[in-house]
Design brief:
Layout: E1 23-27, E2 39-44, H1 49-61, E3 66-69, E4 75-77, E5 82-88, E6 96-99, E7 102-106, H2 111-120, H3 136-142, E8 145-146, E9 149-150, E10 155-162, E11 167-171, E12 177-178, E13 181-182, E14 188-196, H4 202-219, H5 240-246, E15 253-254, E16 257-259, E17 267-269, H6 275-293, E18 302-304
Parallel strand pairs: 2-5, 3-5, 4-18
Antiparallel strand pairs: 1-2, 6-7, 7-14, 8-9, 10-11, 10-14, 12-13, 15-16, 16-17
Bound molecules: flavin-adenine dinucleotide (FAD).
Length: 318
């Protein structure tokens, strides 16, 4: 049996007192939908704004790099993991209040849960997002969307904390959103969002929800672990999956990873894939599509912990 020596907590953590003790060398494979990813040096799940502020101040004061994770459903983490502090609000920050058409959701609320409660309360607009995994915080950063709906459509305001633990609020007109992009600063963590959803016909909403769910099941490899679509569609008439399919790459495997034979924009984990396997197929798809169609694909997923320049040979400079 391989018993590794316990890791000593870094000095800066001694100034921090959280209800849930931060984990050292925590495998991020436990916190991503891919089930892949090396360790975070320190992985913390603060449960209150005060705890989060304290943690941010301590890490920033010590010059520790800080990154954020929601439920990890749009992230590929390298096999070597990430340095410094990883903060996740998923599983905490779960409060959701509905008053009339106003919905105030903390950023750790699961998107599907919010959609369900909205529909129950007669609020519409988000039913096409049923089946998008992830937290409200992650969905806002990514401007998650499906079948014509996007999370930003009914956003009113968002509250964040800076890396110094200072609270800030943004009104909708101070933020901009586009296809899978938002203008939130990368060094601010979203803690809460307020939405104003229209009231609507519950039967029509239930039908739209069922249609979205059926379309998703019919077209996506949902029985395998993945991070959803790997690439953005280059334009509304040109799907990344179609280009990868036409390049003959559907079903291509490397180790435990595969360019899904059901939906070529999904790289799936058959159970034993490494991050390197997935990254290899992503680069292969981007390079082949560029060679065959002259189209440079752009990553939709977020990549964490890769060496600088790792993605550049495939034109994926992230
Ligand atoms: C099967 C499957 C289907 C999917 N289908 C869709 C789809 O139809 N449409 C779609 O848009 N997406 C889809 N996705 C991708 C993913 O579910 C969404 O992007 C989701 O919104 C990500 O939320 P998350 O909490 O998991 O974010 P994460 O993956 O944890 O993080 C995403 C990004 O947000 C940042 N982040 C997360 N939380 C915070 C926070 N509180 N403050 C600041 N930064 C934060 C992270 O640093 C990272 O950069 C799919 C994924 C899967 C696995």
């Amino acid at each position: 049996m391989n018993i590794s020596a316990p890791v000593a907590p870094p000095q800066w953590l001694s100034a921090v007192s959280l209800a849930t003790t931060p984990l050292l060398q925590e495998p991020l494979s436990k916190h991503t939908s891919y089930g892949i990813g090396g360790p975070a040096e320190v992985f913390a799940k603060p449960t209150t704004q005060a705890e989060l502020a304290q943690l941010l101040r301590a890490a920033t004061g010590a010059g520790v790099p800080i990154q954020f994770l929601g439920s990890g459903s749009n992230c590929l983490v390298s096999d070597t993991g990430v340095k410094g502090l990883m903060i996740s609000l998923a599983g905490a920050f779960k409060q959701l209040d509905i008053k009339g058409s106003k919905v105030v959701a903390q950023s750790g609320v699961m998107l599907g849960h919010m959609v369900k409660l909205c529909l129950k309360g007669g609020l519409t607009g988000m039913e096409s997002l049923v089946g998008v995994p992830g937290t409200v915080g992650g969905a806002l950063i990514m401007n998650a969307g499906a079948f014509g709906g996007e999370i930003s459509m009914y956003l009113e305001r968002a509250a964040v904390l800076t890396l110094k633990g200072e609270a800030k609020e943004y009104g909708r007109d101070e933020l901009s959103f586009s296809y899978r992009e938002s203008s939130f600063a990368g060094d601010e963590i979203i803690i809460e969002a307020t939405f104003n959803f229209p009231e609507g016909d519950t039967d029509e909403s239930a039908t739209r929800k069922a249609e979205a769910s059926a379309r998703r099941k019919a077209s996506q490899p949902l029985t395998f672990r993945s991070a959803g679509s790997v690439f953005k569609n280059p334009s509304s008439g040109m799907a990344a999956g179609m280009l990868i399919d036409q390049a003959g790459l559907k079903g291509t495997r490397r180790g435990g990873a595969e360019i899904s034979s059901k939906h070529a924009n999904f790289v799936i984990n058959h159970g034993s894939a490494s991050s390197d396997d997935v990254a290899h197929l992503i680069k292969l798809a981007a390079k082949t599509v560029k060679e065959q169609h002259g189209v440079q694909l752009e990553l939709e997923i977020r990549t964490l912990g890769f060496e600088p320049g790792f993605w550049e040979e495939a034109g994926l400079g992230k």
